Amino acid sequence: MRILIIEDEKPAAERLIGLLSRYDSTISVEAILESVSQSVEWIKNPLNSVDLIFMDIQLSDGLSFEIFNKVQVNIPVIFTTAYNEYAVQAFKVNSIDYLLKPYTYEDLFHSIEKLESLRQNLSSASQRLKLEELNEALLQYRKTYKERFMVKLGERIKSVTTEKIVLFYAEGRTAFILTELGNRYIIDYKLEELEEMLNPSTFFRISRSFIVNINKIQEVLVHSNSRLKIKLEQDFDREIIVSRDKVQAFKGWFSG
132 lies in a domain? Predict the structure, then answer.
């Protein structure tokens, strides 16, 4: 497999090369580029060809999303970044995965295996993935949904996995998560963004203010005006009501 690395931090690039070599010693790193401008020129060159790009988001001369505005990228991309606020934007281009630094070998392993799985399941005889086929396959595979959120605890940063999140809720312009231990944390997303990032088989937006985890619902009660009231496994100090226009869709989701 031929790899292009777009990364402006030398230690990060060297660590990635080491992880790739551990995954497959035959992997060839064709180039390491540090900027948007270098990347655009390299990708434009018809003599350059790779099977996969590892792309940092914050480069020396701007965000790597600018690359997609300046040149057509028909190569699968795995984004790497220390910041989680770009996830939604990353999946709007032809990305396979979104690795949050510092990622582990296991994270990288699963990302590349995801690409290999997609390749094996595409009907095209061509060994190179076509962009439209990749996007269609990504919609069929529910492996790109966000699995954890970074939250701040004073000067510390903590990772919370989605399986431990009972509820996402909004108060004004601020969004929060409620965990199974009753902890509440602010997150830097709007509920509209979260809808795109979360696995719809597990999470459902029941109203303008709430997104619930199906695995954390204790019971569903019939409420006034044919609406539904949700009781969670974790105590919460607000009523959680399914909006009237969401009731039928919620019933279908809740029943599987």
Answer: yes
